[in-house]
Amino acid sequence: MLQLDHVTKRFGRVVIAEDLSFSVGAGDTVGIVGPNGVGKTSLFGLISGDLAPNSGQVSFAGKAVTKLDSAARCRLGIGRTYQVPRPFIDMTVFENVLVAAQQGGGLRRKASYAAAAEALERTGMTGEANLPASRLGLLQRKRLEIARAVATRPTLLLLDEVAGGLTDPEVAQLIEIIRAINAEGTAVIWIEHVVRALTALVDRLICLYGGAFIGDGEPAAVLANPKVREVYLGSDIETAAVESLSSPGGTTPRTPRGMSDEGPIISDMLKTDGESS
Amino acid sequence: MAWVNAIIQGILTGGLYALFACGLSLLFGIMKVVNLAHGDLAIVGAYIATGVIAVTHVPFLWSIPIMVVLMAALGYALQRSVIQAALNKGELATLIVTFGLSIVIENGLQRFFSANSRSIGTGSSLLSASFSAGSQIQIGWLPVGILGIAILVLLALQYFLSASRYGRMIRAVADDRDAALLSGINARHVFGIAAAISFGTVGLAGVAYGMSGQFSPTDGNSTILLWAFAAVVIGGLGSLWGTLLGGIVLGVAQQVGGQINISYEALAGYIIFLVVLVFRPQGLTARRTQS
């Protein structure tokens, strides 16, 4: 379904993708992890059409889409959410989804209204349909982001940190929504730091670092991969963290790469795993 | 009573200014394009209407929808070619390109129609008639009609933007272009539609201007563009109904200034424009955060 062939993307000296190739099949669930700033969101940009690669080719559903903009790719079936939700704030929730159903989904009149209503129902946003999008809280905005992407009737859904900043019950609700979407055959690629959310859903995990995939396979195997562990914690940081925890007057270790303030993240899980083993 | 008359005349003049300004405001609100050829396009609309009447001999009223359609087609074509090419190079490039368009249009009109002034003959005595509203107040039917048309145009635009499929697309692109693209919206087509509406409304304004008095190829840059800018800035950038308020405030300021001394008429308009810029740069209707 999705195929990246030898894709390279650089911003000056920063390498986002270096001769990167991978494919995703229909109905697959793929998680992407990696420290902050390695270019996970930019990789989504290359797939969705926000960014053009320096070289290489992107294909979707058997067509070369490298030169198509994100609107054309959306109409072909690539739906995407933003890491920071970007609703059309001067519109109601329903209008936000309706415009996606009509343009991205190619639906007209009654069919588009029905698709928009269905997308809201599936994401638990029916009650907020007539609210201005500007009045939504974070969870509701993230749900609207998913609803808008779903309304375009995607066969590939790109989710960018949709669980970040949410409480455990909210994350659980979100996983159920995504699982239901995937159950209908929509492939899902999900960038996430909340690793337990990822492992609850995905069959395949990829770790991006330095423009290359340093881990790709079963989630448990990737998380156990020494390269992945080193990228997230680093031996020096791990030692400092352990020393600090064992000494009451010890200094606070510096934040490992990839850590954020938003709930449990992959580095937490790796650290816990490392300490217990 | 003379002051009341000045205020009434100012309000009526505001209708014409709103017609000039709404297309400028729409284009800026959606594409962030400041169209420096906007005033010249009004004059093009007036020439097209006179040309349609001269060539086809249709009644005056029939020339208006023909002119609006032609202007809209011109707007869509120019947007998809010249303006979009400039937009791809950045918003500042559109300033240069629309300035160039303004020069080309003005000189082209002078070449083909000469620099002489002319007016649009309506053939209707009603348009030059007026009615009394007190001993010192005479109100012309034409300014009343223009104000009515301005309100109708704004109502139609508001309905189009809020209730139609294309209106929602325009609002989505104006709000967040990247997110709109991710929803499958063809932004270039939306920009073309916005330009078509902008050109159509300014063509209508040009006809109203040509019915109100004389027009010549140089009026677009020297007069109309400045009025439109002033009305948009006073009312608030990107606000449709703000253009009506801005037009009325500008019109009243000019008429009141002219009442004090006829030489103050234009000056009073620019003073109120500067006062709004200094004390409320986001305009009278726009929220501060939007500015």
Question: Can you offer a commentary on this structure?
Answer:
The complex is a heterodimer of chains A (277) and B (291). With 277 residues, chain A is an alpha/beta fold. Chain A has a domain of 45 residues. Chain A has 11 helices and 10 strands. In chain A, helix 6 links the parallel strand 7 and strand 8. In chain A, helix 3 packs parallel to helix 5. Chain A is globular, with a radius of gyration of 19 Å. Chain B has 291 residues and is an all-alpha fold. Chain B has a single domain, classed as ABC transporter involved in vitamin B12 uptake, BtuC (Orthogonal Bundle). Chain B is 76% helix and 2% strand. Chain B contains 11 helices and 2 strands, in the order ααααββααααααα. In chain B, strands 1-2 form a two-stranded antiparallel sheet. Chain B is globular, with a radius of gyration of 19 Å. The model of chain B has no long low-confidence stretch (mean pLDDT 91). Chains A and B meet through helix 2 and helix 3 of A and helix 6 and helix 7 of B.
